[in-house]
Amino acid sequence: GAAGALSAPAAASKWVRLNVGGTYFVSTRQTLCREPKSFLCRLCCQDGPELGSDKDETGAYLIDRDPTYFGPILNYLRHGKLIINKELAEEGVLEEAEFYNIASLVRLVKERIRDNENRTSQGPVKHVYRVLQCQEEELTQMVSTMSDGWKFEQLISIGSSYNYGNEDQAEFLCVVSRELNNSTNGIVKEPSEKAKV
Question: Would you say residue 112 has pLDDT above 60?
Fold first, then answer.
């Protein structure tokens, strides 16, 4: 077939075997040289004595690094996207990206770590709850004028226990909540408007 047309050495040289910490990865020179300054590019494209790269008995380049984090590195070189499995620590990938000297990936991983810190520094989303007491006729007005970010949670009727001769006004406790957003870095600046009692 057409494959026969390729002379064996050329075909062989297109593919590169890497032995990363005991795990084999196979890739093409083209992929590994996507980042010209990277360690991988120097390793397989300038296979000169100056790198003195060790190969194992199968001819794979030996790299003494954690193979767990090599996957995202290689995939990034393949398609330019940063994809990290849930169970992998971004810090681990960052470590490797820095070792392999892939600047654009280092930037990406750092951004990802920063985003995650912003998202998780709060722990799970915190809510502030507030209970407002109001009379029946004030209810609709209060719900409609609720300030941004407040969500109506629950209405508790507490009956009209204080009826001082005026017409029966039902009293309600209105529970509202809002998410604490991260922009305040955990400092809750809450207006101290007291609910009417």
Answer: yes
pLDDT digits (tens, 9 = 90+) for 8-31: 454 457 889 999 999 999 999 999
| Number of other CB atoms surrounding residue 88 within 10 Å | 14
Q: Which two tokens stand for residue 189?
A: 């600046």
Can you read off the two tokens belonging to residue 110? 């750092």
CB 118 within 8 A of CB 96: no
Domains in the chain: ranges and CATH: 15-121 (3.30.710.10), 126-160+169-180 (3.30.70.2000)
Q: Tell me, what's the pLDDT at 53? A: 65
Q: How many CA within 13 A on the CB side of residue 141?
A: 6
Q: What is the pTM of this model?
A: 0.54
Name the pLDDT band for 63 (thresholds 50, 70, 90).
very high
Helices 103-120 and 70-79 meet at what angle, rounded to 10? 120
Taking 3-state DSSP, the helix, strand and coil percentages for the chain, each rounded to the nearest 5, stand at 40, 20, 40
Residue type, 142: M
Separation between Cα atoms, residue 158 and residue 161, nearest integer Å = 7
